[in-house]
């Protein structure tokens, strides 16, 4: 399935040139008043203390006279229809398509970010389309999409917009998918998860030094997020981008897999994906395929039932295998599902119950009938 850019097809949006826009704002959530018109943001672990007329680290939340506002509500800089496998999510409605969207901004600065042209820029620097939550949902219905994905940059920083869309989409039977770095405080995470069906977390590495030096963040809050998501029963998958010499040590990967199994369970899928030079890290060559294969092998040795190789189209590590009989359950290449042998949530060969969120009938799209509302996905336990 190829990605479709929706900007050229939307007639109900307002294309805005940031050079002349007066930047309409929207009330922010999760902040506290301080003295002297200062505010404290409590949305993410940075907990920025922001003076009047200043912004937080993310650059998209501003203090105006002692009140905190988001500058990116409804201001979409990227909008596409693409496959759920592109997130990647391999155990959530495989083979379906969704509306994927983003605003500018991020609460980390990963030196290897592939979307740095929008994640590391400010609202004034990127043109956008003004799309209300209702417009997004209308587009998802018209395109017969199973889900809306909040992705590309960091959804935490456009929390209010995501929250409003997700709440309305849930009422209309459209699933909500979050692709995140996991850098969010527990209270806003729990509130958001009332409307979320699946989350993919980028676990950048399993050491705090990497997070501090390469991502301007910390590891512990991300681990806390993973535990909370698992506790809430939201379908969860993890991606680790393997960068040669920086986070590819076998023992670190082994320690990470042990932590995942002990704290999240053996059925949380783990994707090891290939890095390509970009942004501020251009002096390191792409990840050797053999390195990804070693990481996947380590995960299997440590009892992770579903480990994958990513950014390597055609590799056998893209497929889903039954942990019991080892037969192929889902055959993939890139973002395309070639064959899906999961039927009634079971392996056709041995009847092993496959963890995940699946279509009730693999032969039909859940949006095959445009006017028949989908009642929402359901998940099997980890």
Notes on the structure:
Keywords: 4Fe-4S, Iron, Iron-sulfur, Lyase, Metal-binding, Pyruvate, S-adenosyl-L-methionine. It holds the Pfam family Radical_SAM. This is Pyruvate-formate lyase-activating enzyme. GO terms for molecular function: 4 iron, 4 sulfur cluster binding; lyase activity; metal ion binding. It comes from Candidatus Scalindua rubra. The protein is α/β, with parallel strands linked by helices. It has two domains: 47 residues, no CATH class; 273 residues, TIM Barrel, CATH 3.20.20.70. It is 22% helix and 23% strand. The strands form six sheets. It has a nine-stranded mixed sheet with strand order 1-10-11-13-14-15-16-17-18. Strand 5 and strand 6 form a beta hairpin. Helix 7 packs parallel to helix 8.
Compact overview of the structure:
Its cofactor is [4Fe-4S] cluster. The chain is an alpha/beta fold.
The top level CATH class name of the largest domain: Alpha Beta
Count of discrete alpha- or pi-helical segments spanning 4 or more residues? 8
The poorly predicted ranges are 8-13, 360-382
The fraction of residues in strands falls at 15-25%
Strand order across the biggest sheet? 1-10-11-13-14-15-16-17-18
> How many domains make up the 3D coordinates?
2
Helix/strand layout:
Blueprint: E1 4-5, E2 14-16, E3 26-27, E4 31-33, E5 39-41, E6 49-50, E7 61-64, E8 67-70, E9 75-76, E10 78-83, E11 97-102, H1 116-119, E12 128-130, H2 133-142, E13 147-150, H3 159-171, E14 175-180, H4 186-192, E15 198-202, H5 208-215, H6 219-232, E16 235-242, H7 250-263, E17 270-274, H8 289-301, E18 307-310, E19 320-321, E20 328-333, E21 336-340, E22 342-343, E23 346-347
Parallel strand pairs: 11-13, 13-14, 14-15, 15-16, 16-17, 17-18
Antiparallel strand pairs: 1-10, 2-12, 3-8, 4-5, 5-6, 7-8, 9-12, 10-11, 19-20, 20-21, 22-23
Helix pairs in contact: 2-3, 7-8
Protein name: Pyruvate-formate lyase-activating enzyme
Keywords: 4Fe-4S, Iron, Iron-sulfur, Lyase, Metal-binding, Pyruvate, S-adenosyl-L-methionine
Cofactor: [4Fe-4S] cluster
């Amino acid at each position: 399935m190829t990605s479709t850019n929706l900007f050229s097809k939307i007639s109900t949006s307002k294309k805005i040139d940031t050079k002349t826009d007066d930047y309409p704002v929207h009330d922010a959530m999760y902040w506290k008043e301080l003295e002297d018109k200062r505010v404290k943001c409590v949305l993410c672990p940075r907990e920025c203390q922001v003076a009047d007329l200043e912004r937080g680290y993310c650059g998209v939340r501003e203090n105006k006279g002692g009140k905190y506002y988001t500058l990116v509500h409804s201001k979409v800089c990227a909008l596409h229809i693409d496959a759920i496998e592109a997130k990647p999510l391999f155990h959530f409605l495989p083979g379906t398509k969704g509306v994927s969207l983003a605003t500018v901004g991020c609460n980390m600065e990963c030196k290897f970010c592939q979307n740095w042209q929008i994640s590391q820029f400010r609202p004034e620097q990127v043109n956008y389309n003004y799309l209300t939550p209702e417009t997004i949902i209308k587009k998802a219905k018209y395109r017969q999409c199973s889900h809306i994905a909040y992705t590309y940059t960091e959804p935490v920083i456009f929390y209010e917009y995501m929250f409003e869309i997700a709440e309305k989409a849930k009422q209309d039977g459209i699933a909500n998918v979050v692709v995140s770095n996991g850098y969010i405080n527990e209270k806003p995470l729990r509130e958001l998860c009332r409307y979320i069906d699946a989350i993919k977390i980028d676990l950048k590495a399993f050491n705090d030094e990497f997070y501090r030096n390469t991502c301007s963040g910390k590891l512990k809050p991300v681990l806390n997020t993973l535990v909370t998501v698992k506790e809430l029963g939201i379908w969860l998958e993890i991606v680790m981008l393997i960068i040669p010499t920086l986070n590819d040590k076998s023992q670190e990967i082994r320690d990470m897999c042990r932590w995942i199994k002990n704290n999240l369970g053996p059925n949380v899928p783990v994707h090891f994906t290939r890095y390509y030079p970009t942004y501020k890290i251009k002096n390191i060559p792409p990840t050797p395929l053999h390195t990804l294969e070693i990481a996947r092998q380590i995960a299997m040795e440590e009892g992770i039932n579903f480990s994958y190789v990513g950014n390597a189209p055609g590799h056998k590590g893209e497929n889903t295998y039954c942990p019991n009989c080892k037969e192929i359950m889902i055959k993939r290449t890139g973002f395309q599902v070639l064959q899906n042998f999961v039927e009634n949530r079971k392996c056709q060969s041995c009847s092993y119950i496959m963890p995940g969120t699946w279509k009730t009938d693999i032969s039909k799209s859940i949006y095959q009938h445009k006017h028949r509302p989908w009642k929402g996905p359901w998940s099997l336990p980890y």
